[in-house]
C-alpha cells in the first residue's frame, strides 16, 4: 500500500509539515508506510514556470499515480492554502487524484481561516478528480507549537488527526468507494438507506 504525504509549506519546519509527520507516525504504528514529498523536492524553476513536461513533474506524477492515498498539508496564508502547494498541484494531470483517498490537513493563524480547506483546497482537489476527500483537519498556530526541533500538538488536534488517519486506514482497508461518489454521500446512504 502506498501513501504519499504532500507537504505544501515553503518551510521544512512548519506546523503543517509537523502535523503531516505526526500522521505518518500514526500510519507507521498501524503498519502502513508512507513517503513525503514537498516544495523542496521540486526545482523552484519548474514550479514557478509550471514545467509540466520536466523530469521533476514526471516523477511527481508517477509518485501520485502509484499512491492509493494522499495526505496533503498546507499552511493557510491570506485566507487560502499555500501558493507553493498550488504550484505542485498544477503539475499533476487533470484526473491525477481519481480513485484515491485524500486527507487534507491545514494550519493557520486563527480559526477564522478554518474554511480555507473547504472553499479553497477541496475544489482544487476535486478538479484533479478526487472524489474521496475525507473531512480535513485544521489547527491554529497556538495548537501546534514549534520549539526548535520539538513540536507540541494540542490534545484536541491530536485526537482529530488520529481519528482522520484511522478513518483513512479504514477506507483503504475496505477499498475505494464506487466511482463518482464521495464519502459523505455514501455515509448518508448507509445511514438513511437512500
UniProtKB/TrEMBL annotation:
Domain named NADPH-dependent FMN reductase-like: residues: 1-142
UniProt keyword annotations, A-Z: Flavoprotein, FMN, Oxidoreductase
InterPro entries (UniProt xref): Flavoprotein-like_sf, FMN_Rdtase-like_dom, NAD(P)H-dep_FMN_reductase, NADPH-dep_FMN_reduc_SsuE
A Pfam family the protein falls into: FMN_red
Gene Ontology MF annotations: FMN reductase (NADPH) activity
Domain of life: Bacteria
EC number(s) reported in the record: 1.5.1.38
Family: Belongs to the SsuE family.
Protein name: NADPH-dependent FMN reductase
Organism: Bordetella petrii
